[in-house]
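Blackboard transcription, Thursday session:
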Amino acid sequence: MADFDQELDASGLNCPLPILRAKKALAGMDAGKVLHIIATDPGSVKDFEAFSKQTGNELMESKEEGGKFHFLIKKA
Amino acid sequence: MDEKKLAIIATKGSLDWAYPPFILASTAAALGYETEIFFTFYGLQLLKKKLDLEVTPLGNPGMPMPMGMDKWFPVLGLALPGMQSMMTSMMKKKMKEKGVASLDELRELCQEAEVKLIACQMTVDLFEMDTKEFIDGVEYAGAAAFFEFAGESDICLYI
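(Written on the board underneath:)
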């Protein structure tokens, strides 16, 4: 997994909380910085794709590892 | 990118039906939508500072019942005293276990994201509701004000 600047553990949280927490975390970050999100909600895979498309924050990586979902999002 | 707009009418005041407006509004706000919820009739319950909402199995054959209760209790059994509060606490427990946000939390997130919350003035008067019981930041308006926003919205939902 590539480098990141900030981490958000949204494990155990269900829709729409991972997205809302990520949005909040990104709001406090500078453009170009990367947020690593960890989630357990299987719906978050499609949701972060949609979030990225609609907000313009690039989804650099999305993968499943050890039963958890990991996302890297670069703040636009 | 032009900001998209979402207009929602929230008409229901039960625990289960309180979720869709707040989930959709908070998510839309996170995606950059300008969002407005118009609360009317029983939906006004969702604006109370102290949310005291319940869920009822009555008249709701689609509600999954724990422990095969629907087999043991015929419809009339579901009308027994205490049944509604029991179903409500079971539903709340389940939601907590599954990491579903509380309504208070979702509503706060909506307010933080500047989702506009409008109470229908006519229903407030009709039910003689005490607006001091409502959270701060609620605006009061009527149908015409709703259309001013809804007419320009990209998505309009009646919940």
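Lecturer's comment: Chain A has two helices and four strands.
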